[in-house]
Design a protein that fits this description.
Length: 316
Amino acid sequence: MATEKVKVLIIGSGPAGYTAAIYSARAGMNPVLYSGGQPGGQLTITGEVENYPGYPKGVEGPQMMMDLKEQAERFGTQVRDGLVTKVDFSRYPFHAVVDDTHELEAEAIIVATGASAKYLGLPSEQRLMNKGVSACAVCDGFFYRGMEVAVIGAGDSAAEEATYLTKLCPKVYLVVRRDEMRASKIMQQRVKTNPKIEILWNSVTEEVLGTDEVTGMRVRNTKTGEVREIPVKGFFVAIGHQPNTGIFKGQLDMDETGYIKVQPGSTRTNIEGVFAVGDAADRVYRQAVTAAGTGCMGALDAERWLAAREHETVPA
């Protein structure tokens, strides 16, 4: 099969990918977007989204992604199902393979593969996803205003989530596996001195309780063996995120956890013509609105890069 040639290839969907597609298509760059293994990204497994501008009554995550997809297609984006399984940035045009079979050449590539929250792996946790189980207190904490909740984790993210939730909730249990936290000293201090936070040291969650919604958690102390059932309405897992950037290792510069490094104030990577947007390059904010913002930036960066390159190659 002949190699397909495209101007702009967008790898991944979600707010970043779809926004990049909208801007690229409006600029006449005829983008082709492959939606990846989880079309629409993390928001497709998110319930109601209330903090994205333009939806005064809130919107269900999957519906929001359908809206963005439709908007991208309206301007001419080819949105395709499929997973990019291999890339080669060492030659130009860039080379990509979809589902190990379809080959493409692209003049510019926008990486929007996102990141996935890590979970404990409990069957009850998966069953109650978006029914009290969440990996984002900033996104979902509002729904548990006035209720007791739990945060699982021991790093800065867990400390930040627990602290944030104390603004909304009367009691926050912080479940820490060991007898110490990995969080920075200042974050530990904030957690330990907050009267609304109870730290459960040397503790692991054995089960999230509830049938149709979270009603509590069963926690075991690894030192004493004591098992407690604690009533909570929200169960927030804050044990980290894993960026979906494995296929780019060895080609794009990344930090120690796999987030793609971009040049400050831009979406440019270490490879000219390859741009990274959304949660694949953002280990700090990880919000739909910030992902969409960098998607816009990626499209503009790609447009300007391609225009400059075409100008340089035009004969005098």
